[in-house]
């Protein structure tokens, strides 16, 4: 069954709430109840900037899955086309990096080392998911196009496209 953009948008909105909403919203709240340790103002400012940039990147990446890929970021409802535009020209995993930025921003705003540790655990889990599931699945789904993309664009450290 061919996915429409409207269906992709609805699925993507739901996944936005269920995945990043839980990982970068509910879990940090459960860990901290948003209680601050009173970090310096400069650290709070850096944290708010990180949260704002991270949230903007997450939204842009999710929208790109709808518009360019005609699908969702959810493995259960993947895109019809390989998403390689926008921030995906610079790094293959902007969404995961952005969620990390949000969590680390919360750590800075609240002055909570527990969230730094959580961001580390999240990073290990995401790297493992990408390495053991996502990249092989994309290789099977998109074949040579994904192989070419993978060779041209780094996974975790953004750079200008060649």
What does this molecule look like?
With 162 residues, the chain is mostly helical. It has one domain. It is built from six helices and no strands. Helix 1 packs antiparallel against helix 3 and helix 5 crosses helix 6. The chain starts with a helix and ends in a 10-residue tail after the last helix.
How many strands, which pairing sense, and closed or not: the largest β-sheet?
none
Average pLDDT figure: 95
The proportion of residues in beta strands is under 5%
Number of helices: 6
**How much helix, percentage-wise, in residues?**
55-70%
H and E order: HHHHHH
Spatial separation of the terminal alpha carbons: 36 Å
Provide the number of structural domains. 1
How would you describe the shape? Answer: globular
Number of strands: 0
Which regions contain 5 or more consecutive residues with pLDDT less than 50? none
How are the elements arranged and paired?
Elements: H1 5-18, H2 20-32, H3 41-67, H4 94-110, H5 113-142, H6 144-152
Helix pairs in contact: 1-2, 1-3, 2-4, 2-5, 3-4, 4-5, 5-6
Give a nutshell description of this structure.
The protein has one domain (5-152).
Main attributes of the structure:
single chain, mainly alpha, globular, 162 residues, 6 helices
């Amino acid at each position: 069954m061919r996915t429409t953009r409207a269906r992709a948008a609805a699925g993507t909105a739901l996944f936005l709430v269920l995945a990043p909403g839980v990982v970068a919203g509910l879990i940090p709240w459960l860990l901290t109840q948003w209680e601050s340790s009173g970090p310096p103002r400069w650290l709070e400012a850096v944290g708010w900037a990180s949260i704002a940039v991270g949230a903007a990147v997450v939204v842009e990446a999710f929208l790109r899955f709808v518009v360019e890929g005609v699908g969702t970021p959810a493995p259960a409802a993947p895109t019809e086309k390989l998403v390689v535009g926008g921030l995906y020209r610079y790094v293959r995993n902007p969404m995961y990096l952005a969620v990390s930025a949000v969590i680390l921003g919360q750590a800075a705003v609240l002055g909570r080392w527990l969230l730094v540790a959580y961001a580390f655990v999240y990073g290990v889990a995401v790297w493992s998911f990408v390495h053991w599931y996502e990249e092989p699945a994309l290789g099977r789904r998109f074949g040579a196009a994904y192989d070419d993309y993978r060779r041209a664009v780094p996974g975790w450290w953004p750079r200008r496209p060649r």
